[in-house]
Design goal:
elongated; five-stranded parallel beta sheet; 167 residues; 43% helix; alpha/beta
C-alpha cells in the first residue's frame, strides 16, 4: 500500500527518531515503467527456498509483483535448479519464459557436479527452453569457478555469447 511504501521509504526511521512522518503518495518518487525509468532486474529466482522468505514463487506471481513495482524484465534461475534438481528447475524456467517471453529471461542452472550431463542440458535449455544465460552457484555446488568442471560452462557461454551469473 501507499502507507507501507512510505514507512519503508523513511517513515519507520522518522518515528524511531521522534520526527514527523511524511504523507504517503501513490506516485513513486522516481517512477519506474512506461512513465519513468526502465528497470531490468538481472538476478532473481523462481520457487521457494527454505533458508529465506520469498513472497512470490511462481512465474505468474513474479510478473504480478513486477507490474506492481514497475519492473519491465526479470532474469531468473530456479531454486530447485540451483539446488537439488537442475533438470526440474530448468524445466520451470522454460515454462516461465514460454508464458512470459517479453518479461522473464531465463538462466539455465549449470551444475559442475554433473559435468558429463551439462553439454546436453545446456543445449536443451538454450535451444528448447529459451534460456538466455547460465547460472553458476559455487556455494551450493561446493565448487570453485577455477575447477575444471566449470570449463565447459564457460566455453558454452562464450560460444552462445551469453552472460553467466555466478554466486
Amino acid at each position: 500500500t501507499a502507507a507501507q511504501r512510505a514507512d519503508i521509504a523513511g517513515n519507520n526511521l522518522r518515528r524511531l527518531l521522534g520526527l514527523p512522518g511524511r504523507p504517503p503518495s501513490e506516485d513513486p518518487r522516481w517512477p519506474c515503467g512506461k512513465s519513468g525509468y526502465r528497470v531490468f532486474d538481472i538476478h532473481g529466482h523462481l520457487g521457494l527456498w527454505c533458508r529465506k522468505y520469498y513472497r512470490d514463487g511462481t512465474a505468474e506471481q513474479m510478473v504480478a509483483r513486477m507490474d506492481a513495482l514497475g519492473i519491465e524484465r526479470f532474469a531468473v534461475s530456479d531454486i530447485v535448479g540451483i539446488g537439488s534438481d537442475y533438470r526440474a528447475g530448468n524445466d520451470r524456467i522454460g515454462e516461465g519464459v514460454a508464458a512470459y517471453p517479453d518479461r522473464i529471461v531465463g538462466y539455465a542452472a549449470y551444475n559442475p557436479n554433473y559435468e558429463s550431463e551439462m553439454a546436453g542440458e545446456m543445449a536443451r535449455c538454450f535451444d528448447d527452453l529459451g534460456c538466455s544465460g547460465i547460472k553458476f552457484h559455487c556455494n551450493l555446488h561446493d565448487t570453485s569457478t577455477e575447477a575444471p568442471s566449470y570449463r565447459l560452462g564457460f566455453r558454452i557461454a562464450q560460444e552462445r555469447a551469453c552472460p553467466i551469473l555466478c554466486h
